[in-house]
Specification:
The chain has no helices and 24 strands. It is globular. The protein has 291 residues and is mainly β. Helices cover 0% and strands 51% of the residues. The strands form six sheets. A four-stranded antiparallel beta sheet has the order 2-1-24-23, with no helix packed on it. It has a four-stranded antiparallel beta sheet with strand order 3-4-5-6, with no helix packed on it.
């Protein structure tokens, strides 16, 4: 503010969230944008077995779950509840969508049919988010107490008694493509990264600390199940990096030159990859003669 209090300089930020699709076998720089929305988005982006993309949007005024075709056509709103519905995950048979919603007052895990009907609440309590379905479709993995002391849990996909899987600070569980293991983000006194362990029982078999360029906890298994893919940001550009399970050095998978990568997902056949980007433009603006 100026000394006479008549003018004020400020930073004005415009955010945009977009979803793009690229052939997974070629350079991701050839991606085609199929959806965009003003404002900050919410991950993730994911695929149904028949090639539809499922994502979150607040174009309706609050966060809802939507689906669209691979080219962006046929967009359909799947949840209509006036609360927040987030973090969609698709069952392997494509019949159900699991998500986190605060429609019961706090965030719990819910299930709907892929057409958006027959909503069923699976978990009780609160702050249960980030569901993922195991490869056999039998279990839903999720994070509980995400804002305080997060732990990994699982519950039968058809409903039932939940089971705690981790005792230390952990979140974002994802089952391996073969259904035998889970990976999740861990935080200990030395570092944070991804841990891998059997789904049934046991302590982590391996830990892979994140490099300093990682600020997002978003990751996925590689389609062949032989590695873990995470997002690293350097010089203002986010890219995908692959950490092989054999412990060898990570390698870069994409070569984006700018922009923040929020989420990504391969189609079930491994032929396509969807990317969710966030871009922001910032300008200096001058406000004068205000009262």
């Amino acid at each position: 503010m100026t000394v006479d209090a008549k003018s004020l300089a400020a930073i004005q930020t415009h955010e945009k969230t977009s979803i793009s699709v690229a052939d997974a076998q070629t350079d991701a720089a050839n991606e085609s944008e199929i959806f965009s929305e003003v404002g900050a988005g919410r991950e993730p982006v994911t695929w149904t077995p028949d090639g539809h993309i499922v994502f979150c949007s607040r174009v309706s005024g609050n966060w809802d779950i939507w689906s669209m075709n691979k080219d962006g056509s046929g967009a359909k709103q799947l949840t209509l509840d006036p609360h927040n519905d987030l973090f969609p995950a698709i069952s392997p048979d494509g019949r159900s969508i699991f998500f986190a919603s605060d429609r019961a007052g706090v965030f719990n895990i819910w299930r709907i049919n892929v057409d958006g009907n027959d909503a069923i609440q699976l978990t009780q309590g609160g702050m249960q988010v980030l569901p993922e379905v195991t490869a056999d479709g039998q279990w839903v993995l999720y994070t509980e107490n995400i804002l305080v002391e997060p732990r990994v849990w699982k519950i039968p996909a058809g409903g039932g008694e939940p089971q705690q899987l981790t005792a230390s600070l952990t979140n974002r569980p994802i089952g391996s493509p073969d259904g035998k293991q889970i990976a999740y983000v861990y935080l200990d006194e030395k570092s944070w990264g991804i841990a891998v362990r059997p789904l049934a029982t046991g302590e982590p078999l391996r830990k892979y600390p994140f490099p300093a360029t990682v600020s997002s906890r978003v990751f996925r298994w590689s389609p062949d199940g032989q590695g873990l893919v995470y997002i690293a940001t350097d010089n203002g550009a986010s890219n995908l990096w692959l950490q092989p399970l054999d412990g060898s050095s990570p390698r870069q998978l994409t070569n984006f030159k700018s922009g923040e990568l929020m989420s990504f997902a391969w189609s079930r056949d491994g032929q396509w990859c969807a990317y969710m980007h966030r871009t922001a433009t910032r300008d200096v603006v001058l406000l004068k003669d205000f009262k």
